[in-house]
Specification:
12 helices, globular, 2 domains, eight-stranded mixed beta sheet, alpha/beta
Length: about 300
């Protein structure tokens, strides 16, 4: 539902859903000038949505949190979301995927996750959002499966399990979304980054932490400054009640609570030595026993 402005006239609750036989749009054909004005207003609204994904999210029936709005309006090429479970990180990433497909004709969006089941869940969110946006004025689906969506503007959204073997072969990717990135292998990260070289596309890494290791941790702690970093704990999510959190804190192991709900990079339970101990044991002041220039390997 929209609130559109045509000159000084406001058209409230404009329905962009496909017209049906029960819709009373008979006045449009009876008044060509009014029909033309409505089409102009729709075109103006879609142009605004092209530059502001928040407007598109609203049309899909979503009410973004403030951090989600900031993310939707960001022009950063690299985003990393360290967010609590059930904070809405997957949903907002799905919105960005749909926005890319609709407003970047001919684009390719890849949705990756550690398993096929997880990537399929993210793909389901994408399809739900796209269905909510369907209208005669937006691109139409011409091919659809459980893992693929192709539009008549030549854009594609493809869902894959996140392994190095499954993602090789794709190029000129407009948007890469890696869900549960902290669980994905480092080889995946190094395999997908070159896909963005020619297209100058965007990448979104989203996850809760999983120990102080892996590319997700490395990017969060030591990545370049051009990464847009977002950290949202469960306490900052308005849909998670303080009472539920307090109960989870009492019943959940502290390690899991800090990791899953407070977004902390904690030590893994199977670590023999702590990360800080290992870091402290490394020194550049000690001369290597076998210098690289002398090694034949």
């Amino acid at each position: 539902m929209f609130k559109l402005t045509i000159g000084a006239t406001k058209l409230q609750n404009m329905d962009y859903q496909p017209m049906t036989s029960s819709d009373n749009y008979s006045h449009l054909s009876q008044n060509p000038l009014w029909n033309q004005a409505i089409r102009a207003a729709i075109k103006e609204r879609l142009e605004l949505e092209k530059g502001d994904a928040c407007l598109m999210a609203t049309r899909a029936g979503l009410t973004p949190d403030r951090w989600q709005s900031d993310l939707l309006r960001s022009d950063a090429k690299q985003m990393i979301l360290n967010c609590s479970r059930q904070s809405g990180k997957s949903t907002i990433s799905a919105v960005l995927a749909v926005h890319e497909a609709i407003y970047a004709p001919g684009s390719l969006t890849l949705l990756l996750a550690p398993s096929l089941r997880q990537s399929t869940e993210l793909f389901r969110k994408v399809k739900d959002i796209f269905v909510a946006l369907q209208s005669p004025y937006t691109p139409q689906i011409i091919e659809e499966s459980n893992l693929r969506l192709e539009l008549n503007n030549d854009s594609r959204i493809i869902s894959l399990p996140g392994t190095e073997q499954t993602v090789r072969g794709f190029s000129s990717v407009g948007l890469l979304v890696v869900d549960e990135a902290a669980v994905c292998d480092d080889a995946l990260f190094y395999a997908i980054k070159p896909m963005l070289a020619i297209s100058n596309g965007r990448i979104i890494l989203l996850s809760t932490p999983r120990g102080r290791r892996g590319f997700f941790y490395d990017v969060w702690e030591g990545g370049a400054d051009d990464w847009h970093r977002t950290r949202i704990t469960a306490q900052e999510c308005p849909r998670i009640s303080p009472e539920w959190l307090e109960n989870e804190k009492r019943t959940m192991p502290a390690f899991w609570f800090k990791q899953e709900l407070e977004c902390e990079f904690t030590e893994t339970l199977d670590s023999v030595f702590s990360f800080d101990d290992i870091e402290a044991a490394i020194s550049s002041d000690i001369t290597p026993l076998f210098p690289k220039e002398q090694s034949s390997l």
